[in-house]
Automatic annotation (TrEMBL):
Protein name: Glutamate dehydrogenase
Lineage, uppermost ranks: Bacteria, Pseudomonadati, Bacteroidota, Bacteroidia, Bacteroidales
UniProt entry keywords in alphabetical sequence: NAD, Oxidoreductase
Gene Ontology molecular function: glutamate dehydrogenase (NADP+) activity
SUPFAM superfamilies: Aminoacid dehydrogenase-like, N-terminal domain, NAD(P)-binding Rossmann-fold domains
Presence of the UniProt keyword NAD in the record: yes
Native source organism of the sequence: Alistipes hominis
Amino acid sequence: MEKHVQKYVDDFMADIIARNPGEKEFHQAVHEVVESLAPYILENPVLQKMKVLERIAEPERIVMFRVPWLNDKGEIEINKGYRVEMNSAIGPYKGGIRFHSSVNLSILKFLAFEQTFKNSLTTLPMGGGKGGSDFNPKGKSDNEVMRFCQSFMTELQRHIGANTDVPAGDIGVGGREIGFMFGQYKRLRNEFTGTLTGKGLGWGGSPLRPEATGYGTCYFAQEMLATRGESFKGKTVAISGSGNVAQYACEKATQLGAKVVTLSDSSGYIYDPKGIDADKLAYVMELKNIFRGRIKEYAEKYPEATYYEGQRPWSVKCDIAMPCATQNELNGDEAQTLIANGCFCVAEGANMPSTPEAIKAFLDNKLLYSPGKASNAGGVATSGLEMTQNSMRLSWSPQEVDQKLHSIMKDIHAACVKYGTGPDGYVNYVNGANIAGFMKVANAMLAQGCV
Ligand SMILES: NC(=O)C1=CN([C@@H]2O[C@H](COP(=O)(O)OP(=O)(O)OC[C@H]3O[C@@H](n4cnc5c(N)ncnc54)[C@H](O)[C@@H]3O)[C@@H](O)[C@H]2O)C=CC1
Ligand SMILES: O=C(O)CCC(=O)C(=O)O
């Protein structure tokens, strides 16, 4: 990197760190973006003068609140609730809600920051936001989850709305939680609107929203593979996670002819050398979505599989890796192991799953590597399609939604290629996604003045 560009990055980050002390995930997300954008911003002085990136890195609003609820023993429990309304330059704030014990402001700010660029890439009119709570749904009864969701929404409902801020699911928030939150929103506001996405099909949801993030990640990977005359057919795929994104990435990769050999959760991973086919995946979906069990039970049911306690799946030999669990789940050493084992494509289904050292290894070795903000954008894009269907008061068929999702993913890929191709022809999808995502938001902010 040239000296004056490095200085811009260093000064920018020094300011971010001073203004947001201790928020390491947020610093990490901003650093990656500033590194991509610095040359572009230095060539466009108006962006510097109008402090566009500085403003994008400061949330427009953060709401923090108490979430008191009663557990099944009748005792009061208290959690923290948050909504980070990051940027509304191109549309209402939009982004998921995460329930996980690790949730804090740093994590939600990094997610809301990433969401701003991701939503812009979808080409749909959605700003960036993210919310959540340090509530841990593991081991809680359905009634406890319902009481928690109702209390969370009792406060959140004042801050959201179909034209203001439209939350959805994320880690720990799936169809069950969206149902409880939507029910409480409707009850308190006395209105049936599209304020949440990820709703059930019979009450305003879009076909394919549950599938969209995993499917979209595979559609994006298909586009990357095609640039080298490759496809999923006959490839071995390692997937981490076993939740929503991992399940549907596994389903689509298998449908496209690949063999998926791993899934994981926070306790460990399973390796199935025969591949996780449709029947085995149906078992995983029941295990995780209904019985809320652990992935190790897979290896008890299918003796051909092995369970590795406390480990991540990146030492397994594969052609394609798809991290679909959580942030910073793939480090520099694991990236080197993947590369040494012949992995040539990494498509992120999770948000920021690769550490900066892992990303550097992928780029230095010229892998096909897509950051989550590009390859997992199919989820929020389909949420955008749900918002459109809600506004029009009609619903599209699964085929129509799938076709739109597919074409959005192709367009995001094309935008990354346009802005990320270097002089040697290698596509740096990190730069491509950051620059393409930034431009639309930046132009809107320039037009809207100092707000
Ligand atoms: N649900 C969606 O539509 C979208 C989700 N994402 C991202 O995809 C990732 C997964 O989200 P979902 O599948 O929706 O959540 P989920 O709650 O359905 O599944 C999360 C998975 O990650 C695993 N996990 C959580 N913490 C872990 C840890 N510390 N170590 C190892 N595994 C861990 C869980 O065991 C579970 O398998 C997250 O990064 C999320 O932000 C991104 C775009 C959209
Ligand atoms: O569907 C949405 O609104 C949000 C999805 C999400 O949280 C994400 O893209 O990370």
